[in-house]
Specification:
Length: 179
């Protein structure tokens, strides 16, 4: 890992990411714990690459190793945690995703995208629509979010309302999401 190029070595890193297997992750963790220069940046790239290419299990495993190494409260910790939570959700590990998002939300209580991710897991995966509604409404408090994020938050709120049988309210919310 440490001998692979940094900076513009995207092709080499792409090839490396394709051959990464779960049994090689232990070696990556050892290297990371040695705090060798540039390794955490390379692992961040691997997490993002694996996530973007649909290698969700690999992205989650790399993020699981990387998360404890990130300083508490840092933007990188939030980014790695969000990838880990999303990939746990995508691979059917909703309880783990809920724990990861919940712990991150305690660490980053004002993060509206994180509130929405946690609300989505609670609404869709864990059948906790009342708590999902509360979190989705929190995600919508404040200045207008970028359109795709705003729509995702409204979508989550609509799902939570639908799960509660509040279909007319949900329809209004869904209509606002597509405007």
């Amino acid at each position: 890992v440490t001998n692979l190029p940094s900076g513009n070595g995207l092709q080499v890193w792409s090839q490396f990411a394709r051959i990464l297997t779960p049994d090689r992750l232990g070696r990556l963790a050892v290297i990371l714990r040695r705090q060798e220069e540039g390794v955490s940046e390379k692992l961040m790239f691997l997490v993002q690459y694996a996530d973007a290419t649909g290698a969700y299990h690999q992205a989650a495993e790399i993020a699981r190793f990387l998360l404890p190494e990130m300083p508490p409260g840092s933007p990188r910790r939030l980014a790695v945690g969000m990838v880990l939570g999303e990939n746990c959700r995508r691979t059917g590990q909703a309880v783990k995703a809920n724990k990861i998002y919940g712990d991150l939300y305690k660490e980053f209580p004002g993060n509206r995208q994180l509130a929405n991710k946690l609300a989505f897991v609670k609404a869709v995966e864990l059948e906790e629509p009342e708590e999902a509604e509360r979190l989705a409404r929190q995600a919508l408090i404040g200045p207008m979010l970028p359109a795709p994020v705003q729509a995702a938050c409204l979508d989550t709120l609509g799902l939570a309302l639908t799960k509660q049988g509040r279909h007319e309210e949900a329809e209004d919310v869904f209509t606002n999401a597509v405007r």
